[in-house]
Specification:
Number of strands: 16
CATH superfamily of the largest domain: FAD/NAD(P)-binding domain
Helix content: 25-40%
Number of helices: 15
Radius of gyration: 24 Å
Bound molecules: flavin-adenine dinucleotide
CATH class of the largest domain: Alpha Beta
CATH topology of the largest domain: FAD/NAD(P)-binding domain
Length: about 475
């Protein structure tokens, strides 16, 4: 049997920095990854980070502090996040961003900036690289290679964790995990470690688990191997969940051209008002509007979607003038692209009449007609009594008419393993495992986002907690060495 100082499960946004830090502090570290390559969500994520007080922000002359970041988070989530975890993440965020900076991270030149895809912070404190998550992976991969060369780190890809074994004894009265079983390229391998860190991501690639825990049908942009394995295995040992009931979808994704239940993130609609004033209306399957389309904050629309549209499906409806004159609705598409893709690309429809459009798109025809009549009257008088919309540029009256089918999408899962502030997994009976940790999305997005979505507040806490847990373990190991006879 292998024995390691620390076993880290999952080589993604949280597991990679954890492994780098653990090995560089001298711990014999094993990193196991289910996928055939490392990176997890870093292959798709935007990789936005947020940090108050990072060096780059200071150089740009932006005044900011930890307290402002905490206050902004509080205002956006309405206090629905885990205050203790957010405080740790925010207090160490600048250090994490500076560490990336020290290690050659390529920042996109426009960063730090205010990002409007999520409720905006008061100052520019979001950072990312030109290649999104891949820019982070570029740095992590190099540092991982260095630690592998040092002999302190071993990485097993294509090697999923398949079992966790509860320890027969306790450590200082706390339950412990004794060993893990890893399917190393098809062979069951038992691994013992002084500590096990679950960095297995969320479960937004498992539709059944997602519906059972988050309570919504899944349309996902998550990494395909993020199927909640760490969560399920820890639950077998009595681990509790946190963050249930707080899921918030990201606003709008077109159906994937070939794969049901997934979105194509590259073809995402831009439905954020500060970036693009909406010429369209949003309707549900009955043809009814359900939100003020020009709401300032995307948060208002995301919350309305979960509250008003249980299946999270909605259509944007516009006419030919809206197609020509509004800023194009989908990233990378021109107005001409919309016309060409209509009735060809999944989820994009056009027709000569509203009734025909509704039938083709799957919306109730009388319902849609009544809504458009009402909306056009609101445009004529310059007042939208139904929802208080203020941007009323033109009626929806010029054929052909267009509909784009959208679904609220899961970029991440909100429920996760309950942990204490040091990321040790907590059981349902309140006891905390002495040597089992959950970091990154495995601890649930709601820990840092509450019932909201904050710029950079999954990627940054994943890195922060990855490094802090490794330091905590290294410190404990050195203390044990000091007292050893
Ligand atoms: C399209 C998209 C855009 C996003 N944009 C942002 C953003 O800009 N900013 C932000 O903060 N957040 C963003 N997020 C969310 C954020 O990227 C993720 O929540 C975060 O990267 C997850 O990190 P992680 O390490 O917890 O999981 P991952 O990076 O997914 O890593 C988990 C790893 O565990 C592995 N694994 C799973 N099960 C096992 C097992 N049994 N054994 C071994 N390994 C296993 C997986 O294969 C995977 O490699 C975005 C997400 C998506 C999908």
């Amino acid at each position: 049997m292998n024995h390691w100082d620390v076993l880290i499960v999952g080589a993604g946004n949280a597991g990679l920095p954890c492994a780098i830090e653990a090995a560089s502090l001298g711990l014999r570290t094993l990193l196991v990854e289910k996928d055939v390559r490392i990176g997890g969500c870093l292959h798709t994520t935007g990789g936005h980070l947020s940090a108050a007080g990072a060096r780059r922000q200071q150089i740009a002359g932006i005044d900011d502090c930890v307290q402002w970041h905490l206050d902004d988070i509080d205002a956006i989530t309405g206090g629905t996040h885990r205050d203790d975890i957010v405080r740790v993440a925010v207090e160490h965020a600048a250090e994490a961003v500076d560490w990336l900076d020290d290690n050659g991270f390529r920042f996109a030149p426009e960063t730090p900036r205010i990002v409007y895809g999520h409720p905006p912070y008061r100052v520019a404190r979001s950072y990312y690289g030109p290649d999104g998550g891949l820019s982070l992976l570029e740095v992590f991969s190099r540092l991982i290679d260095e630690q592998v060369s040092s002999g302190r780190l071993e990485v097993w890809t294509d090697s999923p964790l398949i079992d966790l074994e509860a320890g027969p004894s306790t450590i200082n009265g706390q339950p412990q995990v004794a060993a893990a079983t890893v399917l190393r390229r098809g062979t069951e391998t038992r691994v013992a470690a002084d500590a096990i860190v679950l960095a297995t991501g969320g479960f937004a690639a498992d539709a059944d688990l997602f519906e059972a825990i988050e309570g919504f049908p899944l349309v996902s942009a998550a990494h395909p191997t993020d199927t909640g394995d760490g969560l399920v295995l820890a639950q077998h040992l009595g681990a509790a969940l946190q963050g249930e009931g707080k899921f918030l979808p990201t606003f709008g994704g077109l159906p994937h051209p070939t794969t049901p239940g997934r979105v194509q993130w590259e073809d995402r609609p831009v439905l954020t008002t500060p970036e693009r004033a909406p010429w369209e209306i949003y309707v549900d399957a009955s043809g009814h509007r359900w939100v003020r389309e020009d709401a300032e904050s995307i948060d208002t629309k995301e919350r309305a979607l979960v509250d008003q549209v249980p299946d999270l499906v909605f259509w944007t409806i516009f006419d030919d003038r809206g197609r020509r004159e509004s800023v194009p609705m989908v990233v990378g598409w021109s107005p001409q692209d919309i016309a060409e893709k209509a009735n060809d690309r999944a989820g994009v429809y056009s027709a000569a009449s509203i009734a025909e459009l509704a039938r083709t798109a799957g919306i109730d025809p009388p319902g849609l007609q009544a809504t458009i009549d009402q909306y056009n009257r609101a445009v004529a008088v310059g007042r939208d009594d139904a929802f208080g919309r203020e941007f009323l540029p033109a009626p929806i009256a010029e054929p052909p008419f267009f509909a784009m089918r959208n679904h609220g999408i899961a970029l991440l899962t909100y429920a996760g393993l309950d942990v204490d502030v040091t990321a040790r997994v907590r059981r349902s009976d309140g006891q905390v495992f002495a040597n089992l940790f959950a970091i990154g999305e495995a601890m649930g997005g709601a820990a840092t986002h509450g019932h909201a979505i904050l710029s950079g507040m999954t990627c940054t806490p994943a890195i922060v907690y990855g490094r802090l847990v490794a330091r905590d373990l290294a410190q404990k190991a050195s203390k044990q060495q000091a007292v050893a006879p």
